[in-house]
Amino acid sequence: MADTDLVIGRVEELLRDHPPATTARRDFLGAQFEAGLAWVHFPEGLGGLGVAPQLQREVVLRLAEAGAPDGAGTNRLGYAMGAPTVVAWGDRAQQERYLRPLFVGDERWCQLFSEPGAGSDLAGLTTRAVRDGDDWIVNGQKVWSSMATISDIGMLIVRTDPDLPKHQGLTYFLLDMRAPGVEVRPLRQMTGEAEFNEVYLTDVRVPDPARIGAPGAGWKVAMTTLMEERVLFNRERDEKGPTDIALELYRRRERDAGQRTRMIELWIRGRVQRLNTVRAAANRTDGIPGPEGSIGKLVYAELNQDALELCLDLLGDESLLYDSYEPVAYTEESLRRSGEADLRRRFLRSRAQTIEGGTSEIMRTILADRVLGLPPEPRGDKHLPFSQIPRG
Amino acid sequence: MSSSDAREDLRREVRRFLERRSTEADVRRLMADPEGYDREVWTVMAGQLGLQGMALPEAHGGAGFGYEELCVVFEEMGRALLPSPFLATIALAANVLLESGDPAACERYLPAIASGELVATLALGEEEGGWDDTAVRMRAEPDGTGWTLTGVKRFVPAAHVANLLLVVAHTADGLSLFAVEPPAEGCTVEVELTLDLTRPLSLVTLDRAPAVLVGRSGQAWDGVRRALRFAAVALAAEQVGGAQRVLEMTVDYAKVRHQFGRPIGSFQAVKHKLADMLVAIESARSAAQDAARAVAQGDPEVELAASVAKAVCSDTFTRAAATAIQLHGGIGFTWEHPAQLYFKRARSSEFLLGTPGHHRDLVGRSIGV
């Protein structure tokens, strides 16, 4: 209770001293950071107050009501995944270097994890970093990096020692996306737009102070980022969900008995998914979500696909058409409006939801191994030096 | 202490008790017992543990705890597969009385329920079964100052051991509620052979049986319907407990059962089935807990929450129990293995208090679909 009062008091103070109507966006976010209201569960001095993460909701609701700018919206990956990783694994100098610019919008973040040859088997990545004095020289290719064209910092995981087993030879860096040798190429997807990118890294020089965690500790650091990512995919959003849209369409259009059954079932699944999210948030005691975060990710992805299928069925013959296949690159504007996209576009986009951030198959394996404690599947690659694992 | 800590303490206490007093051997012994429950366990539950009176109002001899606490108890009973008239007495009869708007009937029966002296149940469906107002054809006849009932009620849980039957029948005014107190003249109760031997259901034949009106003539259905929804919430909690137990049982088995030189739980085909079971059970738990909260808080959407919970928890328990049999292989199909007991309980619970299809239809009506 005392913590709730502390948080509410700070919010009121912030709004009184920096009225959103007359304060510039960046100044307001700066003041919010200083007040410990950026991530309330972070330590004091680093944008937080060291209180329970659930209390962030109080902040978000009150600030939205007061018309304050939203620091998270256009920098989702940095806000939800980057910052917790830096708090968990960065040293004090790194925390002071990265958190404030991230929150006030000076630096946008993207993720450089997947590679053409390392999707579900992320630890099989081959992008290399070699030590060179106070720097590291990075060579390789990353893929599925959303927002890379408009980002300043890349969360990068690379191989620094190929003679160790695959999970042990990895290291985590925060890459300056403007550094020479970083080339970002938009990757067109089945919706027609280029939401993701390929990132080619050629002799990119990364200073050692941009390394997060010890050399060889990259897998553990990356796990923090990935756990946060799974929760991110399941977070409550402001925009109308596909289940709500399906219900509106259902009430407006002609429909048959089969569609009634599907509509009710979807509505129930949507309600239960929201209840799951609320319960998981209430049970989250410390900062970093556990493997049970995979439940929400899995349920949300499959629910959205089914809901959008019903939406298109309810649209009828209109679903034979499409709004535009013009290749559109991702911008800050398009990012803000992604929730309003055409239903047919969202339907196509939803096919990615059971793939991105860990496929549904990988989610099920994580739940089985890490939550239920089932024995792992025997595998030939885990203990071999990475350089001796057959690839191709 | 926070309310969730208090609930966990209660859960531990009830689980410890049931692990001692409702072992698989006890369950099987009671499946063959004509009464179908252990009177001594019932007495300890009412006395030492105070479970019967837990959620009843203090004015009627109860302890005045909330419905969420009561649902923790149901979850543990489902886990232990406890054969008991607890669901019939507490979830059905006590709720029907509380919703009847008849203080005299509450005063007469609830303290005896709280103390464990009285086993009671609701008699609703007839030859064709069913759990809504269309299931009732029986007519009550005025008889001097009272009434008599004639006809047949079926699928009545715990009727063979109950000393109070709350019977729904028509009067000229509409659906009404009556109390019949067996053993009574013109009232015979026959236990039918049930798919689920842990929950006996009876055929009740009434032949000019004397009955006392509870509440007002023709005004019963609103209260009975609400009580049925509250009972469905308790049953949903019971289903979550049963589903959780079969998941644990199956995970344990998948860790030790070896085929092809490795534990079967290391095969992805097995892992993913169990992961799906986990996801479904966690979702069912969210739905059940939300419905219990809705009852406790008097949420205006409580009936919707109850129907969501009953639909989701029914499907989840049945699928979980079926998967448990599948993953146990041949041993899971044997009489000796407990998987079949949970499967039969799951399948029967699906029907009791309304099928998932019935509750989905109610959800549809309530959201305008």
Number of DSSP-assigned strands of chain A: 8
Biggest chain pair interface: A-B, 36 and 35 residues
Helix content of chain B: 40-55%
Indicate the proportion of strand residues of chain A: 5-15%
Oligomeric description of these chains: heterodimer
- What's the mean pLDDT score of chain A? 91
Summarize the helix and strand pattern of chain B as letters: HHHHHHEEEEEEEHEEHHHH
Radius of gyration of chain B: 21 Å
Distance between the termini of chain A: 57 Å
Describe what you observe in this structure.
The complex is a heterodimer of chains A (392) and B (369). In chain A, helix 1 (2-17) packs parallel to helix 3 (56-65), helix 4 packs antiparallel against helix 5 (92-104) and helix 7 runs parallel beside helix 9 (293-315). Chain A has 12 helices and 8 strands. With 392 residues, chain A is an alpha+beta fold. Helix content of chain A is 42%, strand content 13%. Chain A folds into 3 domains: 2-104, Orthogonal Bundle (Butyryl-Coa Dehydrogenase, subunit A, domain 1), CATH 1.10.540; 109-221, Butyryl-CoA Dehydrogenase, subunit A, domain 2, CATH 2.40.110; 223-371, Butyryl-CoA Dehydrogenase, subunit A, domain 3 (Up-down Bundle). The mean pLDDT of chain A is 91. Chain A has helices at 2-17, 25-34, 56-65, 76-89, 92-104, 218-233, 242-252, 257-283, 293-315, 332-336, 343-350, 360-371, and strands at residues 109-112, 128-132, 135-142, 153-159, 170-176, 182-187, 196-207, 211-212. By secondary structure, chain B is of the alpha+beta class. Chain B folds into 3 domains: 3-115, Acyl-CoA dehydrogenase/oxidase, N-terminal domain (Butyryl-Coa Dehydrogenase, subunit A, domain 1, Orthogonal Bundle), CATH 1.10.540; 120-220, Butyryl-CoA Dehydrogenase, subunit A, domain 2; 222-366, Up-down Bundle (Butyryl-CoA Dehydrogenase, subunit A, domain 3). Helices cover 52% and strands 16% of the residues of chain B. Chain B contains 11 helices and 9 strands. Chain B has helices at 3-21, 24-31, 39-46, 67-80, 86-98, 103-115, 221-256, 268-297, 302-328, 339-351, 356-366, and strands at residues 120-123, 139-143, 146-157, 164-171, 174-180, 187-191, 201-214, 258-259, 262-263. In chain B, strands 1, 2, 3, 4, 5, 6 and 7 form a 7-stranded mixed β-sheet that branches. A two-stranded antiparallel ribbon of chain B has the order 8-9. In chain B, helix 5 (86-98) runs antiparallel to helix 6, helix 7 (221-256) runs parallel beside helix 9 (302-328) and helix 9 (302-328) packs antiparallel against helix 11 (356-366). The radius of gyration of chain B is 21 Å and the shape is globular.
